[in-house]
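Researcher: Before we compare anything, I want clean individual predictions. No alignment, no superposition, just each chain on its own. First chain goes here; please echo the sequence and then give the structure tokens.
Model: Echoing the first chain and its structure:
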Amino acid sequence: MRRITRIATVGIASAALALSATACGKSSSSSSSESTGSGSAAIAYDIGGRGDQSFNDAAYAGLAKAEKDLGIKGSEAEPTEGEGDPDKVQRLTELARAGNNPVIGVGFAYAPAIAEVAPKFPKTTFGLIDDTSKTGKNIANLVFNEEQGSYLAGVAAAKVTKTKTVGFIGGVETPLIKKFEAGFVQGVKDTNKDVNVKVQYLTQPPDFGGFSKPDLGKAAAQGQLDAGADVIYAAAGLAGSGAIEATAKAKKWAIGVDSDQYNQKGLASYKEYILTSVTKDVADSVYNVIKSVKDGKPQSGEVRYGLDKDGVGLAASNPAYTKMTEVTAAVDKAKADIIAGTIKVKTAP
């Protein structure tokens, strides 16, 4: 698998684009090299990059599965610190020009760039994870009902807390992360209205460092622990690993996000205290869009993953969690009620 490092991404892309323009005598916006098939596929990572033990790693798992099962070649491109939309445009253009199909932007931050690049490569499918604001015939909007999985986490948190105080940490205060907050708080309050939920965001747009700095997550978690929280749920990308570290060291319960963080090697030292994780099947969404292109029936438009299709859920990898039969029964009932429509989960606080 070809991987462009975080530091070198922009430089490599610039050099490649210049070389292509010189060799072909065409401008950088030309789509002459794009592929109509799926011999290769690419993902462009969100803030934090591969190794975040969460969102980006889930996307990588989907690409790795496609390489193994479908025989495609995978390429990866890392973000750069403090980058803007022009950097993303350049990255996506290079990946498409190299013949990758599909090209997948991991995260809503790629929406403006995909909206600009996709029309220039009409034969290439662009996957856009976590965003429906930018659409097109060759754009597949891969989205999830994060609020539903977060509701289940809220049920679990309300059931296991002994202090009647739990915490939610959001990486950056965006509409997407507020869906996680809304579901979690509703799940807590529907289960036990007397439980206090402390909510904290690490950064505000346009500062997206709250997704990439573990020290911020660690400090926020410590503050909530000091205030009496004994269960902390962080939806903060790489920063969430800091929250898990602080919570585990205090021997309190952490709830992971996006990937099943109990099984993440980078968090193995803390897994005993990772009660569960709100999972998003980002891996399958990446795999499915790659397979759709390979099969000649590329996905387009909104492709939604919810509880009804196990697109979101609550992990049960920790044996300590599965032994909590009263907790798991409450979670299972809530899941059934959400799927049946008996429980309507809010998408905003």
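Researcher: Okay. Second chain, same rules.
Model: Second chain and its structure:
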Amino acid sequence: MEEPLQNVSKAAVIGLGSMGWGAALSLLRAGFAVNGCDVRQNVLQRFSQAGGKSCKTPSEAAGAADAVFVFVVNSGQAETVLFGPGGALETAGAGTVFLLCTTMAPSATMAIAERLEAAGMLVIDAPVSGGHVKALSGEMVVMGSGSPEAFARAEKALDAVSAKVFRLGDRPGAGSQVKMINQLLAGVHIAVTAEAMTLAAKTGIDLKTLYDVLRVSAGSSWMFENRGEHIVSGDYTPRSAVDIFVKDLGIVASEAERVGAVTPLTATALALFRQASEAGLGKEDDAAVAKLLAERSGVVLPGMGAGS
């Protein structure tokens, strides 16, 4: 019988972006030896300085790991880091738990999970939420689905990165379905936050005063409280970029069409994010959709030059 993960402490994190970086640091704080893999050399240098082992390829990272967290951007990247040249499956031992934290279409998650399981791996469909702050503090929410054995073996690793793990089913796919609905709400809330703040600016309301009032009023949401502050301060440093919601709301729209659901608010928000991306804002914080609305409304928000 294989040794359960709670008695060992080796993990790998593939993709050290906003959420993966926080997960990797949380695992280090919990006493794990952590291999981190990313395509950016400066990020790998920072990870080494933080006490992790930096790896240039997923295969190098996964070789000694009992749990492998995948935090890349989309399903295409996930397939590459798992199954491509230098991918994690080249070195992962049988029974390794793969935690698929990437936001993907449920069908893509299930297809990847089937390939991993066919290779003798355990899989948890484990998309996360909470933003980069919760990731750094080890308090993410995990929307998980997978076998009881996979959850048992990954228990200590999941405890290190999350405040709450929802077990949504015994097969991969259910976690991605719930994350998809979360992203519908998140994307629409960001878009409507941008609309509200732009209208306020156009009518001459002081944005900081408005933000202070609304964040404790009935019209608030987690996204308004978080992204509204970005707009007030004019800080569009990308915590989560515009292009991420082009992808995520694209998944929502595609899956909705597939099952015959009507999602008009998703369609409107997706159109705004796509237009913002086409306007050159794709790599900025997703709150930068407000810049698009501001330009169309003839108003200058904080962080926008008078000529922008």
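Researcher: What stands out in the second chain?
Model: The longest helix spans residues 174-202. Additionally, Confidence is low (pLDDT under 50) at residues 1-8.
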